[in-house]
Amino acid sequence: MTKSARSLVTLTVVALCLIAGFLAIEFRATVFRWYLAEFRAHHGAIIIRRPGSSAITRRTDSAGIRNIAPFATVSVSSVEESDGALAQGVADGIADSRDWVTEGETAGAWIRLDWNAPATIMRVDLYHLTNPANRILSGTLTFDDGSMIPVESLPPGGEARRITFPAKTVRSVIFRIDQAQGLNAGLAEIMVFGTLN
Fold first, then answer.
1. In the prediction, which pLDDT does 9 show?
2. Judgement on whether residues 151 and 82 belong to the same structural domain of the protein
3. Among 30, 58, 102, 107, whose CB has the most other CB atoms within 10 angstroms?
4. Are residues 34 and 85 in the same domain?
């Protein structure tokens, strides 16, 4: 084999190796994007906050009742990309602008709180987003004991929609938005009152 033929073979092998490497990287990226899409389609959850040692502890009454939402892992159906860091404040015990805004979702959007231990709860307070264009007109609270409670429209202006019920012991609660207006539904705050067992 002549020197020029060997050079041509070497260049061809190098080029094929580079092309194969590029295709392998693209394939892995495509598979990862597909896996992420499948995971979200099947599990549909984006964890926006896990409880930490800095969870806010608000005053408790004589029965030990307090807002236990800051002690839950919070996951949502979607979160506006630019709002991801702010959304961590949706269950921190303060109804402020650190809210949860969905990524273009209205009806069907949801937020879920999970506790590591059973919790006895008897009240949920839901706060409307500060943007009056995005309104929740109705929703449903679902508990892991199988019970469900319908929720009326959330009042604008910083007041809470207070939902009270006989005490129940659960490990999770989901608030699903059933009807909304605007482009992006969400909550300024969710508070869950009870005791951690």
1. 72
2. yes
3. 102
4. no
> Which neighbouring-strand residues pair with 121?
168, 194
Is residue 28 scored above 70 in pLDDT?
Answer: no
Strand partners of residue 140: 150, 176
Q: How many CB atoms lie within 10 A of CB 151?
A: 20
Q: What is the pLDDT, as a whole number, of residue 102?
A: 92
Assess whether 172 and 75 both reside in one domain.
yes
DSSP 192: E
> For 35, what's the count of Cα atoms within 13 Å in the CB-facing half-sphere?
6
168 and 155 co-located in one domain: yes
Q: How many domains does the chain divide into?
A: 2
In this prediction, residue 158 carries a pLDDT of 79
Residue reference for tokens 């070497």: 10
Q: Do 38 and 55 belong to one domain?
A: no
Q: What is the mean pLDDT of residues 46-56?
A: 68
Its sign, for the CA torsion 157, 137, 50, 191, is: positive
For β-strands 135-143 and 186-187, DSSP reports them as unpaired
Look at the block and give the residue holding tokens 């394939």: 27
Residues spanned by the domain of 5: 1-43
